[in-house]
Structures are given as C-alpha cells and as structure tokens.
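Look over this today:
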Amino acid sequence: MRPDRIAAIVGVAESDLGVTPGKTALQLQAQAAKAALADAGLEKNDVDALFTAGNWAWSPNLMLAEYLGIQPRYADGTNIGGSSFEAHLGHALAGIEAGRFEVALITYGSTQRSDQSRNRPANHATLVEQFERPYGLPAPVGAYALAAMRHMYQYGTTSEQLAEIAVATRKWAMMNEKAMMRTPITIEDVLSSRWIAEPLHLLDCCLVTDGGGAVVVASARRVGSTRKKPVWVLGHGEMLTHYGITNMPDLTVTGAVQSGQAAFAMAGVRHEDIDVVEIYDSFTITVLLTLEALGFCQPGEGGAFASDQRTAPGGAFPMNTNGGGLSYCHPGMYGIFLLIEATRQLRGECGPRQVPDAKIALAHGTGGVLSSSATIILGRDA
C-alpha cells in the first residue's frame, strides 16, 4: 500500500431517500451537505472547493454554491454520468496534492422519482444521437440488454447467473433500514418478473428513486481537526470509451480495465487485499462486466464468479453492502452512494451489514451506456 497520505474522506451523508415530494434537487443536496459537514466536524465556510454533477441547471456548480451560501475558489463540474463522483474524488485528490485547496465538498441530488422525469432527453435526436435514437433503442436499458445478450452468446452466461446478483444484493438491503426494497426475493422471482428489454427482467434493473448524497474530502493537514477517523484515498483511475452504444469497442469489455489498473497501481494493493467492493449496479449485467474488467475474474467468468451467492452477506466476496442501486436507492446518478457506503464500511459503522475488520475498499462507478468508468480505492489506518 502506498505510504503517503494526501487526502481523505472525512464526512459522508445521504439526504432523504426514496420518494421526496415537495423537495428540490438543491434542497436534497443541501440536506446531505449539512449532514456530511457535521459528520466531519467542519462548517460550510471551511469548504473551498465544490464538485457536483447533474442536469438540473445550466451551471450546477454556480447554482449550488449560491444556494449553499458558499464562495468556493475551485470548482469541478465533470459530468460523465453515474461515475462522475468517483472521478470527482480522484480530481479532488489531485487538486489537494497540487495545493489548490484543502476541503472539498462533493454532492449530488435528484427528484426524478417525484418528477416522474428520469431526466429524459429531448424527443428529437441531436448531434450524434441521429445514429441510434431514430431506430427505437430504449435508453439506457436497451444498450445494457445488448451487452447482456452478447455476453450470453459469447460466453454462455445465463439469466440465472445474472439473477444471483439481484438476489444477493437484496439480502444486503434487508439489513439496511434506509433501503427502499427490503422484501426477500429468489432467483425465480427475478426470472418471472416482466421483461424490460430482453434478456433483462424488471428485477435485473435498478430502482428509480429520489435522493441526494454528499462527501467531504480534506487534506492530510486538515484531517487532524476533523471529527472522525479519516478514510484515505489510496488510488484512482478513470476511462472514457464511447458515447453511443454502437461505438462501444467491445460490448463485453468496459473501461474498468484501464481505470482499475490505474487505481490498483496508484494504491499499491492487490485484488486479494480488497475487503469490500461497491460496484455500480444500474443493471445486473453492469456488475458482471465490471467484475471481469477489474480483474476479479477472467473475461467470460463473471457469471460463475457471482454464482452460489458469493457476493451475498456471509459470502466470500462482500459486494454492494448497502443494497445497491438494485434495492437501496438509485436517483439517476448513483456513484456518490458507492463512496458513502465504502467509507462507512471502513469506519465500522454499518451495524448488521458490517463486513468484519474491513480495511481496504474499492468503489467503481459506471456512466452512460457503459461509456465511462472511474475506480477508487480507499483505506483506513490500521
């Protein structure tokens, strides 16, 4: 493990989750930011860098800073879909290392469930969308269905193997009082749920919820004045591969190959050193492809790797321990919740779902239609 300590997560929090009628995306972010700063033992005036992403304003950073009543001297509005927040954390690490700021606030919020919007794009195709949208591909699920079908054709992966991921994730959600879906499900339940885009069933797909989250990052110098023990940012990598699914280089290989290699190299750890894994689960196939791309198993082996409830509570590979986007919450861009759960696991704050003696965690975000990848490796002091 890399010996130097540059920046750490010192505060995390969610806003209200699920269905939040009467609240705006700004209110949810303010609620989460206030709680995360309190978690860190810091004040809003300590924040000198602001990171956010979303489609709720022409300039989300400007609107959010004004709403929060802060005047940050550094801003990052990187928007690469659901992996934006893992990218933000990596960028915050770089900014702190360069001496540009010392306390960064990363936020996200969405009311897509209450708005019944799903942040749908315009009805007409614009720019490069002319090559896909006129042909009726439902976005984004149609793109993920194409990848799943290709993986099944190429490697013999089955719907039952994808369902294993949904069932295991629900078992974690059953131990999280904040999770939206806590009723047990079986593999048969997944297979008998209605098709959304073949071969993906309803229970292969993430939830559609409201919600917000916030993460506070501080320099090593400021860590001494924060309230809780730091969770250090050890490694980061990101990769962009395409915009439209028709331009994905290989439907079974994501940019997690490159982002994962970069993160592991920066952190100086091996796969067997990782105690808990949080992987973006917009769909079950997203998880399977990511496990292979990150190198936890070989290409084509993801189905077998996830079988026999390996990723469930008590399994050999604890994964998505808050219940994930499949069962906990998914307000459109889920990546910030991966960081929140990984931090809590390393702090030992997860109660019945706590992974014993977790020291190193990996969080991986995926954005667009398997288009962007960002990997973070976190660690705590012994």
Q: What stands out?
A: The two ends are 12 Å apart (CA to CA). DSSP finds 13 helices and eleven strands in the chain.
